[in-house]
Amino acid sequence: MKITKICCIGAGYVGGPTMAVIAEKCPHIKVTVVDLNEKRIAAWNDVNVDNIPVYEPGLGEIVGKARGKNLFFSTEVDKAIDEAELIFISVNTPTKTYGTGKGMAADLKYIELCARQIARVSKTDKIIVEKSTLPVRTAEAIKSILDNTGNGVQFQILSNPEFLAEGTAVEDLLSPDRVLIGGETSPEGQKAIEALVDVYANWVPRERILKTNVWSSELSKLTANAFLAQRVSSINAISELCEKTEADVNEVAKAIGMDSRIGSKFLKASVGFGGSCFQKDILNLVYISKAFGLNEVADYWEQVIIMNDHQKRRFSRNIVQTLYNTVSGKKITFLGWAFKKDTNDTRESAAIYVADDLINEQANIGLFDPKVPFQQVLSDLDYLETRSSEENQKYINSFENPYEACKDAHAVAILTEWDEFKDYDWQKIYDNMLKPAFIFDGRNILDAAKMKEIGFVYQAIGS
Ligand code: UDX
Ligand code: ADP
């Protein structure tokens, strides 16, 4: 089966970049990305590629090249489904905020809506690919909906989880460590797998394309994220111990990272991990483990999240304690709001929780982030429902440039590791702050000796 038309439902952080790269690498395939959100689609179609809704280094260029040739962004969902031989489902699967599994299980309502829509519209056989991160056995649910509500059309469901990390999405998509495709063992299932393999093989070496059964593929995605998050929580746990002893977490990380069995990646102590995947995926793992009565397994993984919550809280508590146990009415400037550098995504960013804690203490937060719009910051805080939107707006202000943001502040807190923060004129920032001037470096990116020389009281994580 040769794929000539692909549809992707969901034009977000996963769907947008992934389809842009497929379109660029497969000029013979027409790729249409659809979304219900008209504003988002309009932004993807903006003539100025700097205005596309997802900020990723290198993405604008690729979109600019392929868009209008074989890459299209549209709100005509039915039409794109009808035309395509292969459909990626890339819609959001947030943690449930109601009912059974509240705060833990993934909310699959958007996935189900997609499946029902595909079943209703399809007139020809199709391959459906789960791209969104999903709990194990979701493919089974999608299949059941498609087979029972469709009009006799044959569907094959594949799991093809996305391993791209935000901020490096284009790089990760262009040269992935591996591409994972899970499908049924039946001859039809194998044929569907091969059709998708042929798409990726346009630029990914075939030995890096792994074929598994559906459940292994779904579980591998959750496991990969759980292992990565566990490394961050492990080093963060050690960071607290370092602060109580004479050890330095950067030195410890370097020393253990050079052990080839451990490896050097994902050992940066920080104010805590964020992003749309880690917490959600671990919660999914915990939830299914509990559902099978595997309480020890569930507790083991849940501890990764407990440690992460602790790390965020510890950071805000330390700011309050260091500023003489009160931050009420004090200006504390946040540099960074995104959950990591090189992205405008803020989902589960540590900054949100640290700000919420400090607002509880009546601090005035000044903010500068190079890519996150202030509207997003407010909506992140409002989403916590700790206080009214009007209250939040009283306590947080955003600034056009970092120097204005830091002016008259008691303290600067670094929440995201944006490269530009390192190159600021820190002497100038110091001169315009209240004294003593404090820096709380939640990402260990500044030169401690230099900051102390300027006169700052400088505190980093784990030293
Ligand atoms: C992650 C996975 O890496 C990716 O494979 C999967 O597809 C989606 O989830 P992402 O959430 O985009 O990607 O970013 P990632 O680079 O994994 O970082 C997650 C969080 O951990 C960030 O908040 C980051 O700042 C933090 N982190 C990461 C650390 O605090 N220390 C580290 O050493 C590494
Ligand atoms: P991710 O990080 O997984 O890409 P996003 O929230 O960035 O998540 O993107 C998911 C997108 O899916 C959103 O733009 C949302 O509007 C879109 N979406 C959700 N449900 C549907 C649906 N039934 N049809 C079309 N688009 C949908």
TrEMBL record:
Catalysed reactions listed for this entry: UDP-alpha-D-glucose + 2 NAD(+) + H2O = UDP-alpha-D-glucuronate + 2 NADH + 3 H(+)
EC numbers: 1.1.1.22
Residue ranges the record marks as coiled coil: none
Alphabetically ordered keywords of this record: NAD, Oxidoreductase
Keyword Transmembrane helix applies: no
Domain UDP-glucose/GDP-mannose dehydrogenase C-terminal: 333-448
SMART domains: UDPG_MGDP_dh_C
Gene3D superfamilies: Cytochrome c1, transmembrane anchor, C-terminal, NAD(P)-binding Rossmann-like Domain
Keyword Electron transport: no
Record pathway: Nucleotide-sugar biosynthesis; UDP-alpha-D-glucuronate biosynthesis; UDP-alpha-D-glucuronate from UDP-alpha-D-glucose: step 1/1
Enzyme class: oxidoreductase
NCBIfam families, A to Z: NDP-sugDHase
Similarity comment text for this entry: Belongs to the UDP-glucose/GDP-mannose dehydrogenase family.
UniProt-recorded name of the protein: UDP-glucose 6-dehydrogenase
Source organism of the structure: Flavobacterium macrobrachii
Source species taxonomy: Bacteria, Pseudomonadati, Bacteroidota, Flavobacteriia, Flavobacteriales
